[in-house]
Description:
Blueprint: E1 34-35, H1 37-47, H2 50-56, H3 61-70, E2 74-77, E3 82-86, E4 119-124, E5 128-131, E6 143-146, H4 160-176, E7 183-185, E8 204-211, E9 222-225, E10 237-240, H5 249-263, E11 284-286, E12 298-300, H6 315-323, E13 338-339, E14 343-350, E15 357-363, E16 366-367, E17 369-373, E18 386-391, E19 397-401, E20 411-413, E21 416-417, E22 420-428, E23 445-452
Parallel strand pairs: 4-7, 4-8, 8-10, 11-12, 13-15
Antiparallel strand pairs: 1-2, 2-3, 3-9, 5-6, 9-10, 14-23, 15-22, 16-21, 17-20, 17-23, 18-19, 18-22
Helix pairs in contact: 1-3, 2-3, 4-5
Amino acid sequence: xxxxxxxxxxxxxxxxxxxxxxxxxxxxGADLDVTQGQEAVDELEASGTLExxxxxxxxxxDELKEVLLxxxxxxxTGSGFVGYADTLEADAEAESSPLTVAALxxxxxxxxxxxxxxxxxxxxFDGHAANDPAWxxxxxxxxxxxxxxxxxxxxxxxSAEEQARIYEVWQRAAEDYRPxxxxxxxxxxxxxxxxxxxxxxxxxxxxxxxxxxxxxxxxVVGVALLDVFGSNADHAAYVFTDAxxxxxxxxxxxxxxxxxxxxxxxxxxxxxxxxxxxxxHGQWAPIMGRPTSPSTPVTQWSRGEYAxxxxxxxxxxxxxxxxxxxxxxxxxxxxxxxxxPSNSVTSGSIGRTGDRDVFAVDVADGALSVQLRPPSGxxxxxxLAATLTVRNSLGAVMAxxxxxxxxxxxxNLAPVVMAGRYTLEVEPAGWLTxxxxxxxxxxxxxxEVGVNAPAGQPPPAPGPSAFAPVEPTRLVDTxxxxxxxxxxxxxRQVIVQVA
Length: 499
């Protein structure tokens, strides 16, 4: 008998559609007491829980029924939770160059993308034992024992290659969630840092377990309950690395962001060929579609701007409801521009659609060389494309350019300038069109702007102002010729000298 979600435990929600309902994400044969498709609809109606489960999932009853019948990746657990089981296939032969040991940080289990944030997405690589009430009625009694991430057959330790993949997975997920006030971390925050005990509890988050222990079917790469971020229970999401392409850093990184997205309440992005998972076009794919292919290095959040889209959710806005946006790092006006040295590299981030960062630099006569690029080592998974504009003190454009490729781009400008103060503007950009590339909607992420020019002098600070009162006096009086030769005819003007 299907039970409604426990009112004392935050539940999951979700909706989707699939053209491959008999194959995509199916849990047939898995040791799970979950229902899908017509069986789930029948049990929900027979138990009288359809309305309650649908409501907890953020859906109307008819909507939940429709999605269950169309999408086999959607499931309902025996305790009334709704979630997704995802198949995110990729080309197992293609893998980006692994990081060298020298590029690794000192401790890959102490990474934090935003240390000051009280909200976290915890990437759990070292094994996890769970007894989750959301899975209370499953075949294994809700106990899920996940082994540590392992690719060399030695789960007791983490080799340099395993650490390199952990580091890259963290970097990829950190870039995806950079716009938000949430820290993607590999440091265990403890159960208190994941569960939200009350509305005034500000420290909470989501666990994503990366493990070779696949408790579903071999084709499933990840499972997640929907809309459980910030609940009062540790409802882990899972990314499975049990074979082949699932062990690739890109596959793991994209799957982590995808499954975590479900916990924020995001549904799948479909396309014209498959209403469930859109594979993308050109070099771009949506994170909530099927973003794991090496041929799509640019993966971004989406609002369904491409032709044939099936989901028009505002991904950024939905995530921000649970996390808020990260505060802006640099002002967007010339008056408040951040002054940088004439020989410097400054790191910044475009965090919202339409954001702009403005810098100022004082240079002498000569060439002002400026370069805009993704941070070193991160070009392969940058979510940002951006334009760079150089203006003089009067606001006139001296030089401007955008990226010449969708990924791995660099913008170089070298206008010849006279001594003075110049502003450098960094703005998000799209690439081609929404159906052949991407728009600036989710063109967000980290960048570096480098400046190389002869140092100049900053403009003098304005001196103290003073007020000198004078006796009132008449400047123009056409009646008696003061300030004008006489009466002024229509359409004529008089220039008045004001001492």
